[in-house]
């Protein structure tokens, strides 16, 4: 359990709010313009990828991976990578 004032709750809320904003932008791009000359290129797909990574971040903040001294030394261990690849 965590205390009510644990900074993880603020982090989870911030990640969730950012994901919601990105989702709103994505929805606006897909349904906002009736002008056929408007082309956003790959932006809608990028926004979906960003949302997916934000969901992953939120899950890692909510339930962080336990680090043991052995796993700190093991570079071959798979897991969350800060650069978003993993």
Over all CA atoms, what is the radius of gyration? 18 Å
Mean pLDDT: 81
Strand content: under 5%
Q: Quick one: biggest sheet? A: none
* Poorly predicted parts: none
Q: Can you characterise this structure?
A:
The structure is a single chain. By secondary structure, the protein is an all-alpha fold. The protein has 3 helices and no strands. α1 packs antiparallel against α2. It is elongated, with a radius of gyration of 18 Å. The chain starts with 6 loop residues before the first helix and ends in a 13-residue tail after the last helix.
Describe the structure concisely for a colleague:
The chain is mostly helical.
Key descriptive features of the protein:
single chain; 86 residues; mainly alpha; 3 helices
Helix and strand topology:
Blueprint: H1 7-31, H2 43-62, H3 69-73
